[in-house]
């Protein structure tokens, strides 16, 4: 399907269309104003998916009277290793439908189902922060997100971190760590690539991170922590409305001993609060993992994520995640790869890990 067929719905003349360049400013304005929309609903993700991974984007919107009433961004991920899926949104923790009323929501979901059937994917996956489709199979026991309000006063935010974790932030300060905001990925990428290799995860291609920086401009920024002149931890964060989302982060082998992770995220929080952000979104973690516990130790409460599925060719909900026993031997082997080898092979595999 190369173009969403207009679908009139009801007396309001609601129509579902596919995003083109002419409609992109209206899409962006809707996303900025709609309470249900997130940074991952932004139109720029379509270009990132296509440029960095070659995955087609099917960005659907519902309109009536020339006004957008809902959006549903979809990416088509098809690889030999990980199957064939239509996802809202690949490589993003949130997605799904964002609409101002039930009529627009229903029209978009039906259009997505029709598209999934037309493409004959294994499944359609909608990533919601709330349960939206109780009749659909749902994965709600694996991923959580961590979000918390932050204060303009840095001392208020520091005191809100539980005592033991606050001590780690202060340890980083005492070790002489300093942070710097950067406009590129030159320091970030080597740290991130080695960090995910040590976790047993294939790295995303360098062009993906360049595309993120190029596409989102000032809404994407890198914060890097240095110790005695050497970069030891780094994170790529996104800004959306009054929220900051530290999204891709990593550290060197010495980072943990230096408390460089705690100091890094504290610096992101401190800088963001000073710039007017009022929500710190710590992002997605899998239950029972180290990152899950790390974020809880910061005083954040986990909120379940609801990944809802319309099965087309698949017979069951997919289990493409590191906790699946099927991938454990692969993960252990990947950890032992030399970093240069992992950086060459990783991008070929990671394009299917949407």
TrEMBL record:
Residue span, BioF2-like acetyltransferase domain: 163-295
Taxonomic superkingdom: Bacteria
Gene3D superfamilies: 3.40.630.30
PANTHER family, per database record: LIPID II:GLYCINE GLYCYLTRANSFERASE
This protein's name: FemAB-related protein, PEP-CTERM system-associated
Species for this entry: Ectothiorhodospira mobilis
Higher taxonomy: Bacteria, Pseudomonadati, Pseudomonadota, Gammaproteobacteria, Chromatiales
């Amino acid at each position: 399907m190369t173009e969403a067929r207009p679908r009139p719905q009801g007396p309001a003349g609601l129509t579902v269309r596919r995003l083109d360049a002419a409609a992109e400013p209206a899409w962006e304005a809707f996303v900025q104003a709609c309470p249900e929309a997130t940074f991952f609903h932004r139109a720029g993700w379509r270009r990132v998916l296509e440029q960095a991974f070659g995955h087609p984007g099917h960005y659907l919107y519902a309109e009536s009277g020339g006004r957008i009433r809902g959006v549903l961004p979809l990416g088509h991920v098809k690889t030999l290793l990980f199957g064939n899926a239509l996802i809202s949104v690949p490589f993003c923790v949130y997605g799904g439908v964002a609409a101002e009323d039930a009529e627009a929501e229903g029209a978009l979901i039906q259009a997505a189902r029709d598209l999934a059937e037309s493409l004959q994917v294994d499944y359609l996956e909608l990533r919601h922060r709330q349960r939206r489709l109780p009749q659909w199979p749902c994965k709600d026991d694996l991923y959580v997100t961590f979000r918390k309000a932050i204060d303009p006063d840095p001392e208020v935010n520091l005191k809100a971190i539980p005592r033991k974790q606050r001590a780690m932030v202060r340890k980083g300060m005492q070790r002489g760590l300093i942070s710097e905001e950067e406009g590129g990925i030159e320091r970030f990428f080597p740290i991130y690539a080695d960090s995910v290799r040590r976790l047993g995860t294939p790295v995303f291609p360098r062009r993906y991170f360049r595309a993120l920086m190029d596409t989102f401009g000032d809404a994407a920024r890198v914060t890097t922590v240095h110790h005695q002149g050497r970069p030891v931890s780094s994170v790529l964060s996104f800004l959306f409305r009054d929220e900051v989302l530290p999204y891709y982060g990593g550290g060197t082998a010495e980072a943990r001993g230096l408390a460089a992770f705690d100091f890094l995220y504290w610096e992101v929080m401190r800088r963001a609060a000073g710039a007017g952000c009022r929500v710190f979104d710590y992002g997605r973690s899998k239950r029972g993992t180290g990152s899950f516990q790390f974020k809880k130790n910061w005083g954040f409460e986990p909120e379940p994520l609801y990944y809802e599925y319309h099965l087309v060719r698949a017979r069951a909900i997919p289990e493409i995640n590191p906790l699946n026993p099927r991938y454990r031997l692969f993960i252990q082997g990947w950890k032992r790869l030399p970093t240069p080898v992992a950086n060459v092979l990783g991008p070929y595999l990671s394009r299917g890990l949407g």
